[in-house]
Structures are given as structure tokens and as C-alpha cells.
Amino acid sequence: xxxxxxxxxxxxxxxxxxxxxxxxxxxxxxxxxxxxxxxxxxxxxxxxxxxxxxxxxxxxxxxxxxxxxxxxxxxxxxxxxxxxxxxxxxxxxxxxxxxxxxxxxxxxxxxxxxxxxxxxxxxxxxxxxxxxxxxxxxxxxxxxxxxxxxxxxxxxxxxxxxxxxxxxxxxxxxxxxxxxxx
Length: 182
What we know:
CATH 2.40.50, 13 strands, 3 domains, elongated, mainly beta, 182 residues
């Protein structure tokens, strides 16, 4: 080994130890800054590594998710995980500019190019002081085959339909003036 290589060796080692990639082994989501147990290089394990998350967003990754962790100055005694991803549950086929929140159960909130789609097979609950819904063209609801729809037909006219078990009741045109009319 020449003199330059010998002088540079500690710096090269530190540089190569600055970033690590591996698997999440366990999560402690009970503290103010979530901590992870990480699998790093062959057999290397780190406990209590802080997981820095963007403000307003949090998650509890599943074991087996992948991480990228930074070790300041290449010192492996204290690292911070800057991102955790899980290719097992990643949503595919989003269009450019779209955004989605999702979990491992197939639930999602998807900001599509055409609107917002919320998908869940579980309960959807909204808790608020006031809830206001406003639609400029139409509004419909359905519970197990019983429902209603309202469709704006121009001016102050609306078409109101009700149905039960698939049998549509004749539409009734109504002249109303909603507080937030078009």
C-alpha cells in the first residue's frame, strides 16, 4: 500500500460508512421520535436508531421494510434513518403529479388527476365540529341498494332521484335555492 492510500484509508472508510441500507427489524412507535431496530451489513444490527419523518406525516413500518440510514462522519454509533420504504405494498401506476397515502391493507387516499379517491373496506369516520358538503354538479349516496341523488340541471333547478334495491323512482325536478348554489 503506498503512502497516499495509507493516509486516505481512514477517510475512505468513514465515507463508505456514512450511508447504510437494509431492513427494518422492529419498531418502537411509543416515543416522541420513533426508533427502529435495523439490519445493516451482513449480520450488523443497530438498535434505537431514530427515524426522522416529514412534519405532518407518520407511519409505523412493518418488519421487512427497507431503510436508508445516515451515520454522521461515518461513525456507526449514532445514525438517523431518513427514509423507510416498503416495496411489498407500494402503489403502482400513479400518473405524473399524483400523490397517495396507503397502508398494507389496501386502504388509500389517492389524489388523482380527476379528483380524490378514498378506498377502504373498513369504516370511514369523520370527526369535526361541523361538516359541510358542497357539490356544484351532483351528489349521491347509497347504502346497500337504498339511496338518493341530486343533480343540478341549471338555474335553480335540481333533479332528485331515490332508489331502493335497484328500482329507480321517477326523477322529480325541484326548484330550490341552496345556500351555496352555483
